[in-house]
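Our preliminary data section would be incomplete without showing what the modeling component actually yields. Below, a chain of 73 amino acids is followed by its predicted structure, encoded as tokens that our downstream tools consume directly.
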Amino acid sequence: MKKTRRKVKIKLVTKLALVAVARGVVEVHQFFKDLFDVVNTASASSKWHDELQKAQAPEIIRLVSINELAVGT
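Predicted structure:
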């Protein structure tokens, strides 16, 4: 149990140190801001793709059933 708490404390101190450095060094701050934007964009893009597939599924099923859309094998 002590090792787990110690690891949590080390992670917290490391994060706080990183935040302090990022605020003081413009390049570090910009790097993490850009990284955050890339991660959010990629995540949103994936979610958007999934939602689009769900919305198009009934129409695709209909087109396949009436042989208007070919499916690959």
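Residues 2-65 form one domain. The two ends are 54 Å apart (CA to CA). Preliminary results of this kind motivate Aim 1 of the renewal.
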